[in-house]
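=== RUN LOG ===
request id: a7f3
mode: sequence -> structure
chains: 1
length: 177
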Amino acid sequence: MSIWKRVGSIIKSQKQEPPAQISNPMEDTQVGDIINMDLEEYVVSGKLVYFDRGFPPHRFVYYLQNGSQISCLLIEKGRTYECFNCTFVEGSLDSPDDVPTELDVNGEVTYNLEQQRSDMVRAEGNTDFRANDEVMMWRYFGSEGRYFFLQWQDGKFVAMEGTKTPAGQIKFMKGSR
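=== RESULT ===
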């Protein structure tokens, strides 16, 4: 072996690997991964990522499937992550102009409008929305820690009712691909 080969192999051995990128499962979970929440395991069948143009994403919605049941995990990113375990609610409205500031659901719970905003959305897998289009979203709060989310895109409403879930109680696992 020549001296130059030895010097080259010594130099190669001295190079350090670049640090591995740290993954954040709250944001990086993909379709096919598994989420464990409330002692149940769900397969992620769809993912929505909400963002303002020119800014990083601030909301993630994972469509969760457990057998024939479909629910969703809504994660809002701020200083901390707010997580909501939601079920879909049937109902109808004709126009986003008809959205009230107070909702009465089956006479059981009254929800008050907390915030409204429009965002762009990226979609993967099986979801209710088209990718790369604008979505309007209304967030309501009610008694006993209950929340109601109403979303509208191009003539279609999607309603969800949910409760807050502590982020530490949600476990993310990579699916086999």
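=== NOTES ===
Residues 93 and 157 are 7 Å apart (CA to CA).
The longest helix spans residues 3-14.
=== END ===
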